[in-house]
Amino acid sequence: MQKALAPEISTWPDAEPQLIGSRCTDCTATTFPAQPRCPRCSGANTSETLLPRRGTVVGKAFVPFGVGLVELTDDTGPVIRVEGRLTENDPAKLQFGMDVELTMIPLTTDEDDPDNPVEIVTFAFQPA
């Protein structure tokens, strides 16, 4: 059995899970994770929004080591930048601009009930 570390931040266990953010209806700022108030304009007119599954690794002075800043994009362009784990941690195989996609990976096992251990999963980005 599996369960999410933070079930409120994604649509997992959907077959193609998405991260859940929020979008301000006043200034259109997008945040992750979802927030009740907009960090840009301080407005309270926010609504949950599903974030794109695909993006690219971005940054200049950052040396990737299994964590990256990923700019999620949809058909209209960039939506938000999310810092997250990368499934690839070999710096020689990582590059800026590479396409990645959201996935869910095992993080730990909850063994409160030894007869029914539960695998805890979290989000990460894998090469697309």
UniProtKB/TrEMBL annotation:
Name of the protein: DNA-binding protein
Transmembrane spans: none
Top-level taxon in the UniProt lineage: Bacteria
GO MF annotations, alphabetized: DNA binding
All residue ranges annotated as the ChsH2 rubredoxin-like zinc ribbon domain in the record: 15-45
InterPro entries noted in UniProt: ChsH2_Znr, NA-bd_OB-fold, Thioester_dehydratase-like
Keyword annotations from UniProtKB, A to Z: DNA-binding
